[in-house]
Design goal:
By secondary structure, this protein is of the alpha/beta class. The protein has 22 helices and 23 strands. The longest helix is centred in the last third of the chain and has 15 residues. It is globular.
Length: 559
Amino acid sequence: MAVNNEKPLIVQSDSSLMLDVHHSLFEAARNDIAVFSELEKSPEHIHTYRVTPLSLWNAASAGIPSEEVVARLSRWSRFDVPENVLFSIRQTINRFGQLVLKETENPDLLILEAENQNIIIELESRKSLAKLLIREGDGFLVKLVDRGSVKVELIKAGWPVKDIAPLTEGESLDFQLRSETLSGSGFHIRDYQVEAANAFYGGGEQGFGFGTIVLPCGSGKTIVGMKAMDLCKTNTLIITTNIAAVHQWMRELIDKTELSADLIGEYTGSRKEIKPVTIATYQILTWRPDKESDFPHFKLFSAGGWGLIIYDEVHLLPAPVFRVTAEIQAVRRIGLTATLLREDGREADVFSLVGPKRFDVPWKELEAKGWIAEAGCNEIRVDLPEDLLIQYAAADKRQKFRVASENPRKLSIVKQLVENHREDMILVIGQYLKQLHAIAKLLKAPIITGKTPNAERETIYQDFREGKVRVIVVSKVANFAIDLPDASVAIQVSGTFGSRQEEAQRLGRILRPKERNSWFYSVVSNYTTEEVFSANRQKFLTEQGYKYNIEIWDDLEDE
């Protein structure tokens, strides 16, 4: 085996890639491999990537052939690239493009063409495709409404489709991005934001206009969405996580584009406006009177002459919306997210229905350039009080987690942390309402939960932005798409069972660039199941490159 210690990469036979962070060629090698592999871990010394079918199909959809992938691995690998890896790369990438979806003269039908007869035979034998494909010559006819469903089933079969059927333009909406915000400050789109939007749009050519952008929380994904709107200049439907996020999008659009307020509509539980730019929540779209009824608000997808749909926080895309997204494949669509991790494992559906990953950038790279704040991550462990030990021991698994999460000793820790950060803007985040209300009372701080009226939420958020209140207590309703740029400390007192998504979003609340460093604390009960679930969340942060300190509260009290 040939060995060249001058090179920074080790390619292993399980398709994992290990990249030496301290090597002088690290950055060049990382830029080369990032387009066809997924970053799994990025701690201090060695970053781990993995080559998967999905990552290779992402690369193929961006026009990178198998031999280019092989050449890049060989260029940077310290040892010979294992033969099984080379074989797998060629086999996997070469599957992309063997099925092509094209338009026909009939506007209601597409044609799925295959490169060889064996593929035709294989697809005909799959029951899941039988009702979606109509045999026609050397291929299949596909009903326009089945475009997305066919793509999903084919990727499950290991045959990703190259979709070059044209996209509808939608109704024209001419507007410009501002060079100066309404407050008078200069507005300049960052280079990576422009690159991300251009990667999605692809100059308007066939095969582009759909895809997913992966950027860290606090890096300005909303700006990427607005730049995509600027490129498309068409009526746009934006779907986001909650009403606060809807209002945030509205503020940003008015502040940074020449769109007037009367062109921007809110489609939520309280208002049902359809304007050239309409912003809705996933919650309203997935509402229905009962489990047997249809989803009445799905009509929104066909109501506004949309030429672009923006799926904010696309990793949270609800299963029912996947269905309607499958039916509107002729519309340009962009997904925005900090992580493609889905707890339900439906990343391949995002690839098929919203589009392949077009752009991403590591969290620590943006931190190094000053685009997001530097954050210190700390876990503070505290023992359960003696009077809860028997209750904990006798509880079932789920109840054990709750007893540990609501450990009353956490309250004094939170109070001390707030006192330690007297110059900071602080979010206290948790899962259980009784615990959060106790903390809010202790700190004399306002609280936001799912039961807080929207008007009251907006007032509290605005008071926080303006510095009228320094600490707010929030439940998981604040996990997503809330812009609180001055928040510099997050104290997590309880969380969902080991959710990596949640950890990413909660850290993201404090990553807006600012003069002060940011601090993220998790308070965890020692020797309990909470410690086990915390390890999964902790793993996600360390894999993103964040140092994670663990300390015992009794030791800190002694100090």
